[in-house]
């Protein structure tokens, strides 16, 4: 049967190398006729190869010159959640000179790295379902415009590849269950925390799940950091102050493969906006958040965590259209 991961990687790359007039025929060979692809805001739901091309692939190809995929990791396996299915997950960048508007974001004319988190469900060699988070907020930042009063509690850096450089179709697949076990242990301890220190038992130190020097790579608006103190200062504390009742873990998919694991919820999190976040004053609104997390586990501890969040949608729920606000600043 071959390696589903490698075949999918090759197919996705081909969508950015094929001639424009061949795209629809090519897409029909990789997507089921009724394939459903859910894309983060402002794109939405795309059904079937034709819509997937016109709503996702063609706009990306038109915006970047030349548009190419640069995959950081691609792995997958059988879903541990009841939702089921074989899933292939990936983090990629679409790169190229940003020369044409993309979903309302105005181009910079400069090289851009648009990060995307992807969960693809495959049946009989065809993609039948997918969910993608496109970090549009980070793309806006790369154009030199920032439409919010606050932002980037951590450092806004381009997502790096895994430190071990083995995230593309890892070979030690039998270790995936153990990697996912570590991640699930961490997730089970997240909901109980000290409101003063923002610490949680089972996270760091004796019996913890995070390596002392772990790296945490966050999306546009949050940024990246390292170690538990950095994680608390640059993400956890601001987030929990703003959303103290947040509940997460509502995942449709959890997979492990090699030293890697990935989880995603659509949405994963529910919460109430109780304090200022990214410069947006508390609205008191009940909110939801779409989430993707990708992890590398080493010696039984989480060494790296890449995080994609649909912040365009979250901010819309808070009453802020960041794409429109960014356009007004030009």
From TrEMBL:
Domain of life: Bacteria
InterPro entries hit by this protein: Cyclase_SnoaL-like (IPR009959), NTF2-like_dom_sf (IPR032710)
SUPFAM superfamilies: NTF2-like
One Pfam family here: SnoaL
Cross-referenced Gene3D superfamilies: 3.10.450.50
Gene Ontology biological process terms from the UniProt entry: polyketide metabolic process
Protein name per Swiss-Prot or TrEMBL: Ester cyclase
Species, as recorded: Gymnodinialimonas phycosphaerae
Organism phylogeny: Bacteria, Pseudomonadati, Pseudomonadota, Alphaproteobacteria, Rhodobacterales
């Amino acid at each position: 049967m071959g390696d589903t991961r490698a075949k999918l990687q090759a197919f996705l790359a081909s969508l950015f190398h094929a001639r424009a007039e061949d795209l629809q025929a090519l897409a029909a060979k990789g997507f089921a006729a009724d394939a459903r692809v859910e894309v983060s805001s402002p794109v939405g739901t795309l059904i079937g190869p034709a819509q997937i091309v016109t709503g996702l692939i063609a706009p990306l190809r038109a915006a970047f010159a030349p548009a190419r995929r640069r995959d950081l990791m691609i792995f997958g396996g059988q879903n541990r959640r009841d939702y089921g299915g074989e899933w292939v997950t990936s983090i990629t960048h679409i790169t190229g000179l940003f020369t044409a508007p993309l979903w309302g974001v105005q181009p910079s004319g400069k090289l851009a790295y648009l990060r995307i988190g992807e969960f693809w469900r495959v049946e009989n060699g065809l993609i039948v379902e997918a969910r993608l988070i496109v970090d549009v907020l980070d793309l806006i930042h790369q154009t030199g415009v920032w439409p919010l009063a606050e932002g980037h509690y951590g450092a806004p850096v381009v997502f790096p590849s895994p430190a071990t450089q083995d995230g593309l179709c890892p070979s030690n697949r039998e270790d995936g269950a153990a990697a996912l076990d570590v991640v699930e242990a961490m997730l089970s301890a997240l909901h109980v925390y000290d409101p003063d220190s923002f610490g949680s038992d089972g996270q760091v130190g004796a019996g913890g799940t995070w390596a002392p020097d772990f790296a945490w790579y966050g999306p546009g608006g949050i940024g990246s950091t390292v170690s538990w103190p950095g994680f608390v200062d640059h993400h956890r504390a601001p987030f929990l102050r703003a959303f103290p009742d947040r509940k997460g873990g509502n995942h449709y998919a959890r997979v492990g493969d090699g030293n890697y694991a990935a989880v995603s919820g659509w949405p994963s999190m529910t919460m109430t906006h109780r304090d200022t976040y990214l410069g947006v004053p508390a609205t008191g609104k009940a909110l939801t958040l779409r989430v993707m997390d990708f992890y590398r586990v080493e010696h039984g501890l989480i060494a790296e965590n890449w995080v994609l969040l649909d912040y365009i949608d979250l901010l819309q729920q808070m009453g802020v259209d960041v794409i429109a606000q960014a356009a007004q600043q030009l």
